[in-house]
From TrEMBL:
Gene3D superfamilies: Dihydrofolate Reductase, subunit A (3.40.430.10). It comes from the Bacteria. Signal peptide: none annotated. Residues 3-182 form the Bacterial bifunctional deaminase-reductase C-terminal domain. PANTHER family: BIFUNCTIONAL DEAMINASE-REDUCTASE DOMAIN PROTEIN (PTHR38011:SF2), DIHYDROFOLATE REDUCTASE FAMILY PROTEIN (AFU_ORTHOLOGUE AFUA_8G06820) (PTHR38011). This is Dihydrofolate reductase.
Length: 201
């Protein structure tokens, strides 16, 4: 069985839209594309290198797939790009539009993701694709979740984990970069527990 590792870059107010560049996702008039770049540092880059070390395949939503497919095949003589271009890309989509990027495969639903997870092969990494996270969590498919929280408030934009089911997590690793990015790695723990500080009388 494969492990599914999922990760998001988010602002302090939970915005995940267009972290990598101005033209990445301008939907709904979003004007802060590329907000991640000024805060990227040696610690942040080192963590990302660790996540994508060794063999892996990708699980992506359709929009992130299209963003990646427009970028990574154009990058030459770069070990990171070579990994992305070589990896199998599994795209969770209801669309019948062609998947032109090398080694791309369509997944029609979360049952197909589960079937993929139960096969032999390298780790499955979900990057970006925030709209598929609620379903992955609902189906208990995420084994490890990493969140990189950047020291900015964006005020508007697509949010992390929209509509996700209540779930408790255990923190298994954390770091803070030179530029103030909080890197936190979690594993699902089970149901959310509650308590009360209210006085009995």
């Amino acid at each position: 069985m494969r492990q599914i590792i999922a990760g998001l870059f988010q602002s302090l107010d939970g915005v995940v839209q267009a972290p990598g560049g101005p033209r990445e996702d301008e939907s709904d008039g979003f004007r802060f594309g590329g907000w991640l770049v000024p805060h990227f540092s040696e610690v942040t880059g080192g963590f990302i290198d660790e996540v994508f070390s060794g063999a892996f395949d990708l699980v992506l939503g359709r929009r992130t797939y299209e963003i990646f497919a427009a970028h990574w095949p154009r990058i030459e003589n770069d070990p990171f790009a070579d990994k992305f271009n070589r990896a199998a890309k599994y795209v969770l989509t209801s669309s019948d539009a062609p998947l032109a990027w090398n080694n791309s495969h369509r997944l029609k639903d979360f049952a197909a993701v589960r079937a993929l997870k139960e096969t032999d092969g390298p780790r499955l990494i979900v990057q970006g694709s925030s709209t598929i996270y609620p379903g992955l969590l609902q189906e208990g498919l995420i084994d490890r979740l990493f969140l990189l929280t950047f020291p900015i408030i964006l005020g508007r934009g697509k949010r992390a984990l929209p509509g996700a089911m209540p779930t408790a997590f255990s923190l298994v690793e954390s770091r803070v970069s030179e530029s103030g990015v909080i890197i936190a790695v979690y594993e699902p723990k089970g149901d959310v527990e509650t308590g009360s500080f209210a006085l009995e009388t």
